[in-house]
Amino acid sequence: MRARHGTLVAVVAAALGRSAFAQDVSAQLVGDRETAAQLSQIVESARSRGLPIEPIVAKARLGAMRHSPPARILSGLQAVAKRLELSREALGARSIDTDIAAGEDALSISGVTPEMLRTIRAAEPSRSVAVPIGVMAQLVASGVKPSDATQIVSRLVRAGASSKDLVSLGNDVNQDVVAGAGAVASLTTRLERLKPLLARLPTPTPAAGITSATTDPRGRP
Amino acid sequence: MTDNERDPAVLRAIAELRRLPATDADAVRRVVDAAAAARFTTSDEAPVAHAPARSSSMRWLIAGVAAAAAFAGFQLSGALRREAPAPATASATASAAVAIPPGALQPAGSGSADALPVARQFVFAGRGARSVSVVGDFNKWNPESARMTRSPDGTLWSVTVPVMPGRHLYGFMVDDSIFVLDPRAPKARDNDLGVDGSVIVVSRP
To answer: Which candidate among A137, B19, B26, B126 keeps its CA 20 to 30 Å from the CA of B203?
Structure first.
């Protein structure tokens, strides 16, 4: 099994053509040609479409490190490649790789859709949206309804909230939920601090739109 | 200043420039001006690209030469290249690389501070460990990439690594064989592989 994992990572390394990455796994380059060929195909296909391949490589390494079955690693890599494509479509072809990767990560969370990424991009069309997307994903993972998380984050971005404000909100809600609070109650309470910021916007505060949490209060799929 | 006194990075950049064809001096000036507009900040979590402590004149010289080199390479390639984020050792080059001349195609977000890596310290408490690394999607889960160092009293391990702003999964690799989550961080599941990781959301300070 270890040899198979080594093959997976080594093929990614070969596809990347990065010697440092290849060297640490080259000794394991044995076995399972079919899996290796599929892996190489996924990486090359993503590269040829201009997608960032770093998230694919990272996923391959994670799978190898955690001893996931090769078939599961391959399906995971295909899923990552598909989400990268969706993320780029939603965020715009001119988005930087960091944003595309952030979108891909968010789309891996149940309930997050490309339309939600579009909403956040619309709120911040010219700067990086990696942090707003990351916080939206974190809120969803904490149990906030995806549409609510998207609305709140996009409104905060429009209101000029800093990345630090957004991350604090996400971390606070997460800690409240871990401590036993409900996601909606936590979010409503934590947004009080940001009311002056949201008051700049003409429409009601997003807290008014919070209606429900996801089924699992911890938001763990 | 003689060549021997110059920073090796400057010498390499100069050597690269000498191999390149002549460029539009006005365009190069605009790039250098744009690089100069990228201000350096100081903070506990200052962007890694701003970390090196150099004299002001040397810093501007490096930024200018790097910007010129970046622009010349850009002209030769004829298009924006999609590459991995700049490594931690990119120094001021990372700031110069995002300063694209007016009129050029500029990727959304490339000019914002959130497009630069941030130095983030990771700490692990483990007296009995022989070695500890932090592994995450930010270093492609490579234990060799971020070996932690033990505190003098042997109780804590720490390392500071460059992390792009955004949400990341990570964990600690103990003794090169045991994956351990960060007990002080939220946990999340990687649905593709069915494994858990600790979560960190990084922002600019």
So the answer is: B126
What does the radius of gyration of chain B's CA atoms come to, in whole angstroms?
A: 20
Q: Which amino acid is at A166?
A: L
pLDDT, position A105? 97
- pLDDT for A67 equals 87
Query: By three-state DSSP, how is residue B119 classified?
Result: strand
- Closest residue of B to A219, CA-based? B188
> What pLDDT band is residue B27 in, cutting at 50, 70 and 90?
low
As a dihedral over the C-alpha atoms of residue B183, residue B187, residue B189, residue B193, rounded to 10 degrees, the angle is: -30
Question: Mean pLDDT throughout A182-191?
Answer: 93
> Residue A67 contacts by C-beta under 8 Å, 6 or more apart in sequence?
A1, A2, A5
What is the rounded distance in angstroms from the CA atom of residue B100 to the CA atom of residue A43? 29
Amino acid at B64: G
Q: What is the ipTM of this complex?
A: 0.80
What confidence tens digit (pLDDT) does each residue in B87-144 have? 332 222 222 223 333 333 456 656 566 678 999 999 999 889 999 999 999 999 999 9
Looking at the DSSP bridge assignments, the partners of residue B135 are: B171
Task: Say yes or no for a CB contact (<8 Å) between A127 and B192.
Answer: no
Quick check: B139 and B161 in contact, CB under 8 A? yes
Mean per-residue pLDDT over chain A, rounded? 82
Model pLDDT, residue A110: 93
- Who among A125, A131, A220 is closest to B114 (CB)? A131
Instruction: Provide the pLDDT for residue B141.
Output: 94
Please say whether the beta carbons of B114 and A128 come within 8 A: yes
Mutate to test the interface with B, among A26, A65, A124 (most CBs of B within 10 A): A65
CB B141 within 8 A of CB A61: yes
How far is Cα B90 from Cα B8, in angstroms, rounded to an integer? 13
DSSP readout, B120-170? EEEEEE-TT-S-EEEEEGGGTT-GGG-B-EE-TTSSEEEEEEEE-SEEEEE
pLDDT tens column, A138-168: 999 999 999 999 999 999 999 999 999 999 9
Residue B107 CA to residue A30 CA, distance in Å, equals 40
Contact B108 A126 (CB under 8 A): yes
